[in-house]
C-alpha cells in the first residue's frame, strides 16, 4: 500500500496532511458509474466481484486517501431470508417485511460463507490493486432493522419504533440476530483483507438517549467490542446523533462519525479528544459554487485545528447529481490546506 495516511490518522498518529475520502464516493454522481448501471442492475454490480472492484476503483481518480468497497448494507438480508431489490426511484424494497415474532424467528443467523462470499471475493481482488487502504462495512442493527420492518425507506420509523415499544423482546431478538450476522460479516471482511471497517447506523439519530441505551447500545457494542480486537480501525457512524455521541462512544469505535449539524470542534469535544473523528462537510455544499464549497471545507479544517485523528469526510453520503469537479476541488483543497511539516 502506497498511501497509509488514512490508517495512521484513524490511530491518531501525526500525519503530514489530513486524509480525505467521501461516503458513497462510488456511485451515481459519476458518469463512469452511470454507464455501468445502463448494463447492470445494482445487485448485479454488487454480486459480481470484477464489477464491484471496478466501481470501487472509479473514485480513485479524485485522489482520495481511502477506498470503500462497493456493496450495500442490505446485502446480508437476502441470505438471512429477507430478499429485497432496489426499485427505480424508490430506494430499497424488502419484499416480505418483518411484522411479528414468527417473522423474526424465521430469519437465519448466517455465516458469511453462506451467501456473502461475493463480497469477500471482491475484497480479495481489490487488495491486489489498491494504492490506498480499503474500508469494509456493514449496517448497524437499528438501521438494518428499520429497512426490514418498514419494508424500505421511512420518514418517521413508526413501524420500527412501534415494534420496539410494544414488543421489546421480539425487537431485541431481531437486533440480536442482526448484530451477530454483522459481527461475523465484519470479521470475515477483515480476514479477507479489509484494512478498516465502518459501521453505518445512519438512522439511529431518530432515537432518544434512553431508547438508544436500552434497545440499541448493547447490540452495537456486541459488534464493535469484538471487531475492535482485530487490530484494524473501526469507524462508528451515525447522523443526527449529537445527543447520542457519548453513548455511541461507549458502544465502541476507534473513530466516531460526525454529521454537519454540529460544529466540528464542539462535536469532537463531546466525543472526547482521545478518539478520532470523521466528518463533517455538508454534502449539499458540493452543489454550491466552488469557492463556497471550499470555504465550508476550510471551516471543517479550522474546527479540527490540525489535531491528530481527523479524517476529512462529508457528514453523510455524497448525493446523486453532485458536480464531479467540486469533489475533486475539495479533495485537492484539503490536501493542500492541511499540509504540515
Ligand atoms: O461508495 C460507497 O460508499 C460504497 C457503496 C455503498 C452503497 N451503499 C452503494 C449504493 C455504501 C457504503 C452504502 C451504504 C448504505 N446503503 C447505507 C448507509 C449509508 C447512508 O447513506 O446512510 C444505507 C442506508 C443504504 C441503503 C440504500 N442503498 C439506500 C437507501 C439506497 C437507495 C437510495 C440511495 O441513496 O441511492 C441504496 C442504493 C445504493 N447503494 C446505490 C449505491 C451506489 C444507488 C444504486 C443505483 O441506483 O445505482
Describe the structure.
This protein is an alpha/beta fold. The chain has a single domain (5-338), classed as TIM Barrel (Alpha-Beta Barrel), CATH 3.20.20. The chain contains 15 helices and 9 strands. It has helices spanning 5-10, 31-39, 42-47, 49-57, 77-80, 101-106, 117-127, 141-150, 158-166, 168-192, 209-227, 245-251, 264-271, 290-304, 324-337, and strands at 67-68, 84-87, 91-94, 134-139, 196-201, 234-238, 255-257, 276-281, 310-314. The strands form 2 sheets. It has a 7-stranded parallel beta sheet. A two-stranded antiparallel sheet has the order 2-3. Helix 13 links the parallel strand 7 and strand 8 (276-281). Helix 10 (168-192) packs parallel to helix 11. The longest helix is centred in the middle third of the chain and has 25 residues, at 168-192. The radius of gyration is 19 Å and the shape is globular. The two termini are 22 Å apart. The mean pLDDT is 97. The structure holds coproporphyrinogen III. Coproporphyrinogen III binds next to strand 3. Residues 23-28, 37, 42, 68, 70-74, 86, 91-92, 137, 143, 153, 200, 202, 316-317 line the site of coproporphyrinogen III.
